[in-house]
């Protein structure tokens, strides 16, 4: 298993670990309940993670 | 003729025009018709993949889920993101194999990998059984949105016929090119409409998002958190995982992977598509906004339409109706085309081996109106059976995932009989639990609540994998014994 594979699994771990922690009614963040805010943030982080995976792969191909 | 009607017809005519015009300058042989000649770039593949996310479900189901089930609706965004992570790794593999072997359908992939037309037939049948209810769902959604948005000027049945005939015309003529081009206008329109509704309605009725959520929490404490049982944390995570595993096993999603001109397209899309999922948050906001404004809706799927009707003038309802129409036409066209391709290539061809590519092409296009009429029949007369099939859809389609993963291994431990047996067992478990309504908790009442709440699709997948491996081990042994006997008689050694 290479670094790019490990990095791409991080969002899955983030989901498994994060959801139980944010399953509460307060505090509101940017007007959203904690779980909604976490899912929105996690979605953005997933996109960033896949960008890093893509760059790692390109670096590996050129190197 | 009212203004909403004019606007809805305007969008319908644009979609038909784009759908038909997209075939210009192309010879519509099967590969061009069903997989776009494997020449789509990042934008078109993005739109085809996003088209899967934004169906009539976005309008009705997404907001309806938030209205009826609260924060649990967020699992839909989570499974979308997980499926895009998966797409980064599996779609390039599907694309490369498809290009090397000139494949045009999902069942082609399995038939080639397992060197068995029988497996192709099994995968085709599972796909068709899941796809027809999915198409009827799109048609029902279309009928509902257009009839409500036009304030009854277009009846539910008439709306379905207009939408279905339009999509049959441009799918038959243009295939996947028609779907790709109409999805351009669909995505622009739905983006504008859903984001506007999701921002405007909470501000209009509550003064903002936070005050809306506080009002909901006061009225129904616990609605904005997952429950201790039922829609719990373990249900949430397991449902997101099982839905993500099955997402690209839908024949029309799997087939869309063949359309790209190179595998890099999927990798770029896997970066951008999770951000696109955030649009669903705005659909959920509409559902949340409707909870206290239009309480006690019998049909929660009506949340967005009911609140919009109470909030906007007819011309804007026409825009919503136009967007709703397009969200049904694009996925509907992909489903129609995939089903026709599956039947012609993987059910007709195995029984008429002499059929030429030209004949298969003609059969596929001829099947489009027939499949459309079958879907229309179920839409108007389906009743409970079609609802049951729809509930099973994701569970059914996910059952081909283990055989798919095994087929990617350098030394595939699974035989064609093992793959077929695993799929069959998984499908039977899903069918039995859906039809009888029985749960794991009822079968094993002593197990912890968190395990009871795990999505039944996970258990079906586990059983599927176990049966696949056991049957494969047994049939491999039988095959080897058979080969040994043969080689003994010829005096040669076949097994190293």
TrEMBL record, chain A:
It comes from the Bacteria. This is Uncharacterized protein DUF3311. InterPro entries: DUF3311 (IPR021741). Keywords: Membrane, Transmembrane, Transmembrane helix. It comes from Scopulibacillus darangshiensis. The chain crosses the membrane at residues 35-54. It holds the Pfam family DUF3311.
From TrEMBL, chain B:
It is a multi-pass membrane protein. The chain crosses the membrane at residues 6-22, 43-67, 73-95, 116-136, 156-176, 188-207, 233-250, 271-295, 315-342, 362-380, 386-409, 421-444, 456-475. Keywords: Membrane, Transmembrane, Transmembrane helix, Transport. The lineage of its organism: Bacteria, Bacillati, Bacillota, Bacilli, Bacillales. InterPro entries: Na/Glc_symporter_sf (IPR038377), Na/solute_symporter (IPR001734), Sodium:Solute_Symporter (IPR050277). It is found in: Membrane. GO terms for molecular function: transmembrane transporter activity. PROSITE patterns: NA_SOLUT_SYMP_3. GO terms for cellular component: plasma membrane. The keyword Transport applies. Belongs to the sodium:solute symporter (SSF) (TC 2.A.21) family. It comes from Scopulibacillus darangshiensis. This is SSS family solute:Na+ symporter.
């Amino acid at each position: 298993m290479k670094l790019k594979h490990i990095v791409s699994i991080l969002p899955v771990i983030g989901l498994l670990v994060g959801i139980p922690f944010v399953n509460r009614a307060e505090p509101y963040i940017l007007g959203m309940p904690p779980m909604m805010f976490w899912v929105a943030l996690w979605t953005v982080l997933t996109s960033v993670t896949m960008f890093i995976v893509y760059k790692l792969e390109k670096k590996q191909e050129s190197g | 003729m009212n203004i909403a009607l004019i606007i809805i017809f305007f969008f319908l005519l644009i979609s038909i025009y784009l759908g038909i015009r997209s075939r210009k300058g192309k010879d519509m042989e099967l590969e061009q018709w069903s997989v776009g000649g494997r020449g789509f770039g990042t934008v078109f593949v993005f739109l085809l993949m996003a088209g899967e996310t934004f169906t009539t479900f976005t309008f009705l189901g997404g907001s309806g889920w938030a209205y009826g089930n609260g924060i649990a609706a967020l699992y839909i965004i989570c499974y979308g993101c997980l499926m895009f992570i998966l797409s980064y790794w599996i779609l390039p593999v599907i694309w490369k194999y498809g290009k090397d072997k000139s494949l045009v359908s999902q069942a082609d992939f399995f038939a080639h990998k397992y060197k068995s037309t029988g497996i192709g037939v099994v995968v085709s049948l599972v796909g068709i059984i899941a796809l027809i209810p999915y198409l009827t769902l799109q048609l029902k959604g279309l009928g509902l949105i257009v009839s409500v948005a036009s304030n009854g000027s277009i009846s539910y049945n008439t709306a379905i016929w207009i939408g279905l005939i339009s999509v049959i015309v441009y799918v038959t003529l243009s295939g996947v090119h028609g779907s790709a081009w109409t999805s351009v206008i669909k995505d622009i329109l739905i983006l504008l409409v859903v984001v506007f509704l999701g921002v405007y309605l909470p501000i209009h009725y509550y003064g903002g998002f936070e005050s809306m959520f506080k009002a909901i929490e006061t009225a129904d404490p616990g609605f904005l958190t997952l429950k201790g049982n039922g829609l719990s944390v373990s249900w949430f995570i397991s449902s997101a995982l099982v839905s993500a595993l099955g997402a690209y096993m839908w024949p029309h999603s799997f087939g869309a992977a063949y359309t790209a001109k190179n595998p890099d397209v999927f990798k770029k899309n896997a970066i951008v598509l999770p951000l696109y999922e955030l649009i669903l948050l705005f659909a959920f906001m509409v559902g949340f906004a409707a909870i206290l404004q239009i309480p006690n809706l019998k049909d929660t799927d009506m949340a967005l339409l009911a609140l919009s009707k109470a909030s906007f003038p007819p011309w804007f309802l026409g825009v919503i109706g136009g967007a709703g129409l397009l969200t049904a036409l694009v996925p509907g066209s992909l489903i129609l085309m995939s089903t026709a391709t599956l039947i012609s290539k993987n059910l007709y061809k195995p029984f008429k081996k002499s059929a030429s590519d030209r004949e298969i092409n003609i059969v596929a296009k001829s099947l489009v109106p027939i499949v459309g009429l079958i879907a229309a029949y179920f839409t108007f007369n389906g009743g409970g059976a079609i609802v049951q099939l729809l509930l099973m859809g994701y569970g059914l389609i996910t059952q081909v995932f283990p055989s798919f993963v095994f087929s990617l291994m350098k030394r595939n431990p699974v035989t064609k009989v093992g793959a077929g047996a695993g799929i069959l067992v998984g499908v039977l478990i899903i069918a039995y639990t859906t039809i009888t309504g029985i749960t794991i908790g009822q079968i094993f009442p002593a197990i912890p609540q968190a395990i009871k709440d795990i999505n039944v699709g996970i258990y079906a997948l586990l059983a599927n994998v176990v049966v696949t491996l056991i049957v494969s081990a047994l049939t491999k042994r039988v095959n080897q014994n058979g080969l040994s006997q043969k080689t003994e008689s010829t005096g040669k050694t076949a097994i190293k």
